[in-house]
Design brief:
Length: 111
């Protein structure tokens, strides 16, 4: 009887963890788009090469909103559009893109 109870608890725990991992990966990894706003940048006083930290409202291709933070070694061009590659631990990589490269739903957010 104890073995069956242990097995049932283990299966339920495994399913809950699997659902949690799938949810986490779906909502925390992906591509987001943002626009540089110099009122949202903080100059860091560190010896690290990353001297600026941006906290910007970003949108995925479906237009879902998310606030993201990332650091850069230099100030970025005001008004520039960025494509942010996000992984579980934050922004992994960014690159500047043109407005026409954004999906329609993202373009609507920045008009």
């Amino acid at each position: 009887m104890k073995n069956k109870l242990f097995t049932v608890i283990a299966v339920i725990l495994f399913l809950c963890c699997s659902i949690g991992v799938v949810y986490y990966m779906e909502h925390y990894e992906g591509v987001y788009y943002t626009q540089i706003d110099h009122t949202k940048v903080k100059k860091l006083s560190t010896n690290d090469s990353m001297k600026y930290e941006y906290t910007l409202t970003s949108y995925d291709k479906k237009g879902r909103k998310r606030t993201l933070k990332f650091k850069t070694s230099r100030e970025l061009r005001e008004g520039a559009y960025l494509k942010l590659e996000v992984r579980a631990f934050g922004v992994h990589q960014w690159e500047e893109v043109q407005f026409q490269d954004l999906s329609e739903k993202v373009q609507e957010k920045f008009e």
